[in-house]
Amino acid sequence: MMREQQTRSFIHPSADEAPDEAEIMRLARADPARFAPIYERYFRRIYAYCWRRVDSEVEAEDLTSQVFTRALGALPGYRGGRVVAWLFRIAHNVVANHYRARSRRSQVSLEAISFDPTDDRPGPGQQVVEAEEWQALRALVAGLPDDRRELLALKVTGGLTAKEIGEIVDRSPGAVRVELHRIIKELRAQHCAVYDRPEGER
Q1: Are 158 and 45 in contact (CB under 8 A)?
Q2: pTM of whole model > 0.85?
Q3: Are residues 19 and 90 in the same domain?
Q4: CB 35 within 8 A of CB 71
Q5: Band of residue 169 on the pLDDT scale cut at 50, 70, 90
């Protein structure tokens, strides 16, 4: 069970919630309580991203709390731009620091690889796979270098566009799209090889 109450403890919802994120951030810089709508809007996505990166509910809860705590602390330095990209950049750094401290490789899980990496719409579609194939897929993803697992987590779990991912990992949108395409192609080829079937066959 997510310890959402722990994360809520430092945010008090405001009765006067502006729908525009730029306005919310402007107000929050003067009054952190005004940050509540942003927290409510992105909590689940940040939590899901952290969970996919660490594969542990407890650690994901702690990391999510750290992300929003740091976001509150970083409000005075916020200078505009997409709020979702700003939050995921903080999440990216929090998770990176977590692994540096733990000195171990992450175990990223990926619920689906059936999506078009050139499609920048949030929330890529996910496919249902058999349990045995799912375990094989998890092993393949876990074997990827950390930077490639990070790209997949940001795209599949975070639902970010190539432009937003590029801002986080300091790469151009085109480079992100190309790398995602390569990763998915390689994963599919490896997955098909495990089951000795043509790539196009389900």
Answers
A1: yes
A2: no
A3: yes
A4: yes
A5: confident
pLDDT band at 153 (very low <50, low <70, confident <90, very high): confident
What whole-number distance in Å separates Cα of residue 49 and Cα of residue 45?
A: 6
Q: Which residues of 192-201 are buried (b: 16+ CB within 10 A; e: fewer)?
A: eeeeeeeeee
Strand ranges for 52-194 from DSSP E: none
Contact present, 202 and 131 (Cβ < 8 Å): no
How far is the C-alpha of 54 from the C-alpha of 102, rounded, in Å? Answer: 11
pLDDT at 119: 57
The answer on 124 and 141 residing in a single domain is yes
Query: Which residues are CB-neighbours of 173 under 8 A, at least 6 positions away?
Result: 161, 162, 163, 165, 166
Residue 80's alpha-carbon distances to 64, 132, 187, in angstroms, are 22, 45, 37
How open is the CA angle 43-88-62, to the nearest 5 degrees?
55
Kindly state the tokens that stand for 26.
């402007």
- CB-CB contact of 53 with 94 (8 Å): no
Look up the CATH number of the domain holding residue 174: 1.10.10.10
60 contacts 69 by C-beta, under 8 angstroms: no
Q: What is the CATH number of the domain that holds 14?
A: 1.10.1740.10
Asked if residue 152 and residue 186 are part of one domain, the reply reads yes
